[in-house]
Each structure stands twice: as C-alpha cells, then as structure tokens.
Amino acid sequence: MLPMRAAPLILLVAACYRSPADATSLANRSESKEPPGLTMTAHGVGPIDASTQATLMALRTMLAGYEVKPVIDGSLQYDIYRNGERLAYVVPDDNTGLVFNIHAVSSRVEIVGHPWRVGRAFHGASHLTECECWGPNPTCFAAGEHIAVNFDRDCEGLVGAERQGLKVLEGITIQRVIWSPSPLGEAYGEDRD
After folding, report:
1. Using CA atoms, how far apart are residues 30 and 119, in angstroms rounded to an integer?
2. What is the pLDDT of residues 137-182, one digit of tens each?
3. How large is the greatest C-alpha to C-alpha distance in the chain, in angstroms?
4. Where are the beta strands (DSSP E) in 4-75?
5. Spatial distance between the Cα atoms of 12 and 5, rounded to a whole number of angstroms
6. What is the DSSP string of 61-109?
7. Gap between the Cα atoms of 90 and 6, Å rounded
8. Which of 176, 178, 153, 179 is nearest to 166 (CA)?
9. What is the pLDDT of residues 31-81, one digit of tens each?
10. In terms of Cα–Cα distance, which of 98, 100, 73, 69 is closest to 178?
11. DSSP readout, 126-188?
12. From CA 182, how far away is CA 179, in angstroms rounded?
C-alpha cells in the first residue's frame, strides 16, 4: 500500500500525462492556410500596389491561394477567383506593364476608407466630386483619391454634374469598386478600360 503522501503525487502525474497518440495527432495535423481576403485601400488591393507588374506570373505569385486567369474582354485583363467566385479583375497598362486599375466585382472584397461594397446600396454622394462615363456606365470619385465607384445605369445627368446633382446616386446598387494606382481626376487620363 502507498503512503498517503504519494497519492496526490500520482494523481498529479496522471493528470499531466498525454499519450503519444495525442501528441502525434497534434503534430501531424495539417493546418489549412486560407489566403487572407482581398482588401482594397488607397494603396492597393491585397498585395498589389502601384509597383506591381501586371503579368500572369507576377499576379499568380502575389495572389497565392487565389486563381488568376487571363481573359480577353476587349483587351487583356486578369480575373481573380477564390473558391470559384470571381472577386476582381486587373487591367494592365499597355505602356508600362504595371497595373492600370483593379475592379472589385464581389462584395467579398472589403473597401477600407469608404462604406462601399459591390452589390450593396451606395451611400456617400456628398463625398464625390465628379463622375466620368467609363463605357456605358458612370464611374464616380473624389478627385485626387484612388478609389472610385461604378453604377449599372446610364451616364446621363452625371458627367459634369455639380456635387448636388450626384445625390441621385444615393441608394443605387454598386456595380464595381475600382482602385487606381494614379489619383483619379483630370491627371488620370482619358483612356480607361
């Protein structure tokens, strides 16, 4: 029979014991590394910034965990997918080989600095200074910023409108949110996707 003083020591050792199977299963457990979600800021989208080469290999390297596909949609662009969902696309600058702009097309892309999300109602028209017609749709922004918002409606009454006239955008569903490495406005240039 064990002395009474040994009983608590045996209980303590038993409580701390971990079987080798438990330790092995913990060590062999594979950690699923999901890439972080795409976030658009004034400085870029995820790891992409103004110095990023807009090539298939460069984008696939930077966006590990995402699927990047080249697409010809009037011109070359690179679609970004995650789990089968198209999140955004990158438009290369034909002259520099860098990123011309990036269009978020999914609400899964978080926008930092604005309450804007693709597919949700727009709020913040008082912040905008101008709209331009990019294709058939208006793209609106505050001059000098790097993030713009695009709507699925015609451009009538928005291009050249005063700030007060942009209030008609309140509550309209956002079609895309666009990041530009160059400040938006007059200096940005005329030719867009």
Report:
1. 36
2. 999 999 999 999 999 999 999 998 888 889 999 999 999 999 999 9
3. 96
4. 39-41, 44-45, 67-72
5. 12
6. HHTTTSEEEEEESSSEEEEEEETTEEEEEEEE-TTTSBEEEEEE-STTS
7. 70
8. 153
9. 555 566 899 999 999 999 999 999 999 999 999 999 999 999 889 999 999
10. 100
11. GG--EEEEETTEEEEE-TT-SEEEEESS--TTTTT--GGGGGGGTTPBEEEEEE-SSPSSGGG
12. 9
- Tell me if 129 sits within 8 A of 114, measured CB to CB: no
Distance between CA atoms of residues 106 and 151, nearest Å: 14
The whole-angstrom separation of Cα 44 and Cα 60 is 16
| Contact residues for 35 (Cβ-Cβ < 8 A; gap 6+) | 63, 64, 65, 66, 82
The pairing of strands 67-72 and 39-41 is: unpaired
Quick check: pTM over 0.70?
yes
Alpha carbons 187 and 167: distance in angstroms, whole number: 25
Dist. CA 112–CA 145, nearest whole Å: 13
| Sequence ranges of the domains in the chain | 39-188
Assigned superfamily of 39-188: protein yfey like domain (2.60.460.10)
- The closest of 117, 80, 88, 83 to 105, measured between CA atoms, is 88
Rounded Cα gap, residues 109 and 162, in angstroms: 30
Bridge pairing between strands 130-134 and 44-45? unpaired
Predicted local distance difference test score (pLDDT) of residue 161: 84
